[in-house]
Design goal:
Layout: H1 16-35, E1 39-40, E2 46-48, H2 49-52, H3 57-62, E3 66-67, H4 79-83, H5 87-94, E4 97-99, H6 104-113, E5 122-131, E6 143-152, H7 158-173, E7 180-185, H8 186-195, H9 202-209, H10 212-226, H11 231-236, H12 247-257, H13 262-280, E8 287-290, E9 304-309, E10 320-325, E11 339-344, H14 346-355, E12 369-371, H15 376-391, E13 396-398, H16 405-414, E14 419-422, H17 425-430, E15 433-437, E16 443-446, H18 448-455
Parallel strand pairs: 1-5, 7-8, 12-13, 12-14
Antiparallel strand pairs: 2-4, 3-4, 5-6, 6-11, 7-9, 9-10, 10-11, 14-15, 15-16
Helix pairs in contact: 1-7, 1-14, 7-13, 8-13, 9-10, 12-13
GO biological process, one term: histidyl-tRNA aminoacylation
Keywords: Aminoacyl-tRNA synthetase, ATP-binding, Cytoplasm, Ligase, Nucleotide-binding, Protein biosynthesis
Catalytic activity: tRNA(His) + L-histidine + ATP = L-histidyl-tRNA(His) + AMP + diphosphate + H(+)
């Protein structure tokens, strides 16, 4: 007996209704991207390994899916490395390509490779799948779509302001009201590390701080102590653990802490600029909030850091994020190319819209009318009408086989097709059609013009 087929963990099949809902999200986001002047690009699903490796930190490198070289991939393997089970050396010999881990690094490669063809500042958007060898769980998959928008070639903070607005208009268009756009600044985090005299432990400090909402204040302090940050240093930034209030009140709080840090004060100025601009141009449905514990993307973010959380009544991780990077293209030799970008977590957005029942009922566009098949002569008459209806933007189809009436009617019911059209000898002679409403059972004989009026 043949084994039942399956798909790899962390991947999914999508049925027609799910695809329609996903396309609904794509279309809404693309519409707003275009309004903001972003242009679409696409990059290959796999890159050369050296393009990706070393760009995401040690943990990221482990999650990159490697592609075996074609042919005899063991041919170039060093015998000593093979005998010693040295996986790092073996991998570089047997795999020269890898599936892309995100869209950011391939975008940096694209900008460097095509720099002579691009007009800067360059605003691009990209919606494509990425792959990560992660542990699958709710809202986290091994294959998923990313949706990025970036601007490279400008240091202007007006770009950050526009990205806050972009998040707001996209979620408003999706009717997903009440999201929180959290913002922080890498310079503020660097300022904290500077003030406590732990500049060399910036990553350890911020990684621990970023876990505040998960492990609490005591858990964060414990992790900091384990990383070698002294109790005296932790006491100096004690106020950030209880930072509350409005954006302005939080800014006032961190100004005191960072009064001796020039880097920190620069970060505060940038945050104030963005917040003041948004006050002048209020958001539609989202809320902008300062979160000084936010520390995502520290391997490449140098200024603003963004993260979007779902409405409070939904338990879900972040549904978007991004930030400013001053030299991302520098990893490929193009220095001083500042950029800023954001990403939408499409799969999580889908789950949130599903949970809150926010997908419009019309999003899964279904066949409006099914013509019953009585035989070849009648089918030809019906198909001519089908073609005319389609030209009038009515979704119609002919049942392909002259099967029993009950089977064809059951098919229409199972697919929730609202109308069935009967066209037998009597209808053909009168050049009419019998339209049956599958909900009410009501039937009426119509000519083609009236049929279009009812179905259109």
């Amino acid at each position: 007996m043949a084994q039942k087929p399956s798909i790899p963990k962390g991947t999914r099949d999508f049925n027609p209704a799910e695809v329609a809902k996903r396309n609904f999200i794509f279309d809404r986001i693309k519409t707003e991207f275009k309004k903001f002047g972003f242009q679409p690009i696409e990059t290959p699903s796999f890159e050369n390994s050296d393009t990706l490796m070393g760009k995401y930190g040690e943990e990221g490198d482990r999650l990159i899916f490697k592609i075996l070289n074609s042919g005899d991939f063991l041919k170039k393997v060093d015998n000593e490395a093979y005998e010693n089970r040295d996986s790092l050396k073996i991998t570089s010999s047997i795999s020269e390509k890898a599936l892309r881990y995100d869209l950011t690094v391939p975008f940096a490669r694209y900008v460097v490779q095509h720099q002579n063809e691009i007009d800067f500042p360059f605003k691009r958007y990209q919606i494509q799948p990425v792959w990560r060898a992660d542990r699958p769980q709710k809202g986290r998959f091994r294959e998923f779509f990313q949706c990025d928008a970036d601007v490279v070639g400008s240091k202007s903070l007006w770009q950050e302001v526009e990205f806050v607005q972009l998040y707001d208009v996209v979620f408003s268009a999706l009717k997903l009201e009440g999201v929180t756009i959290k913002i922080n600044n890498r310079k503020v985090l660097s300022g904290f590390a500077e003030v406590i005299g732990e500049k060399d432990k910036l990553i350890d400090f911020t990684v621990a701080l970023d876990k505040l909402d998960k492990i609490g204040e005591e858990g964060v302090k414990k992790e900091m102590l384990e990383k070698g940050i002294s109790e005296n240093a932790i006491e100096k930034i004690q106020p950030i653990f209880s930072l509350k209030g409005s954006f302005t009140e939080k800014i006032a709080g961190i100004k005191e802490i960072l009064s001796s840090s020039e880097t920190g004060k620069e970060g505060i100025k940038e945050l104030e600029f963005i917040e003041k601009a948004i006050v002048e141009m209020p958001l539609k449905t989202a809320k902008l909030d300062l979160d000084v514990t936010l520390a995502r993307g520290l391997n490449y973010y140098t200024g603003a850091i963004f993260e979007v959380s779902a409405p409070e009544n939904v338990k879900m991780g972040s549904i978007g994020g991004g930030g400013r990077y001053d030299d991302l293209t520098g990893i490929f030799g193009l220095k001083d190319m500042s950029g800023v970008g954001i990403s939408f977590g499409l799969d999580r957005i889908y789950l949130v819209l599903e949970e809150l029942d926010l997908f419009p009922t019309a999003v899964t566009q279904n066949t409006k009318a099914l013509f019953i098949n009585f035989g070849d002569k009648e089918a030809l008459y019906a198909l001519k009408a089908v073609n005319k209806l389609r030209s009038e933007s009515v979704i119609a189809e002919l049942f392909p086989d002259a099967a029993k009436m009950k089977k064809q009617m059951n098919y229409a019911n199972k697919r929730e097709i609202p109308f069935v059209i009967l066209a037998g000898e009597e209808e053909m002679e009168a050049e009419k059609f019998t339209l049956k409403n599958m909900k009410t059972g009501e039937q009426q004989k119509l000519d083609f013009a009236d049929l279009v009026n009812v179905l259109g």
